[in-house]
Amino acid sequence: MLTVRKVTIVDWPHVKSVRLAALADSPHAFFETLEEAQAMSDDMWQDRVRQNAAGLLSTCSLVFDLDEVVGIAVSLIDHQNAIKAHLAAMWIAPKHRGSGIAGTLLESIVSWARNAGTKQLYARVATGNRLAHVFYSRAGFEDFGEKSPSTLSSEKEEIVMRLELDTMKQSERNKAIIRDFVDAINSQSWKKLRKLVARNFVRHSHAGGKPGVTSREDLIKFLCNELEVFPDAHEQLEDLIAEGNKVAARHRFEGTQTGSMGPFPASGKIMKAEYHR
Question: How many domains does the structure of the chain reveal?
C-alpha cells in the first residue's frame, strides 16, 4: 500500500536514498546533479531535512511502499517574492507511475503552499514531456507563457506552469473557461474549442443513442452531428458553481429537430432540455 507523509528529522536517510535514486533515473529533472548529491555529507543531508521538516521556507513529502521510499516531492518559497512557491522536485519510482499516488503527493505540496500563505505554485516541465504536462494541467496548472533553459542543460527547454492557490481567483477563472466553452459551441468555433478542451476529453453520456465521446475530435464530430439534427441549436448557461479546480454547470438546450436522432425521426418541433456538467 502506498502512503504519503511529510518528512521528519529522522527521515534524512530516506530522503538521501530516494533523492539519489531520482537523480540517477532523471538527471535533467532537478536543480543538482547526481555527483553533487553524492558529495554531500550526512550532516548536510540532515540539515536539509531539518529545514524541510520545519516547513517554514520549504517542505518535503515522501511516498512509502510499506518501508521502502519510492517517491519524493520538494517545494520552496521564492526568496524574492513570498507569494510564490516552487515545486523544486517531484519523482515517483518507475514501477509506481500510473498508480495515482502522484496526485496525492502533489496535493501534499499544494496543501503546504496554501498554509504557508503563498498564492501561486510554479512547476517546470521539460518541453516534449507530454505526460508530465497533462498531469499538471489536470491538477489545475496552466502554462505561464514562459520557456526557459533547463536547469542543468542549456540544450533543452522547460515550460513554466503555474497553479493559482487563491481559491476564489482560481474558481472565477475556471468558470470563465466554461463560459468560453459554451460560447465556442454556440458560435461553432471549433478552433477555439480545441484550445479549451483536452485531447483525451471524455463525455460521459449516451444521449440520443450515441456512444461515449472519448477525445476532443470525437466531441467536435458529435457537435457537428448534433447541428445536422438541430441546425438552430443553442445552449444557455443557467447556473455555475465552482470550488478550486472543479466546476458544476446547469445548462439549458433548445433547438428545432429537423433531422433524425437515433430512433427518433425528424419532427420539426422545438426540443428543450436541461442538463448538468
Answer: 2
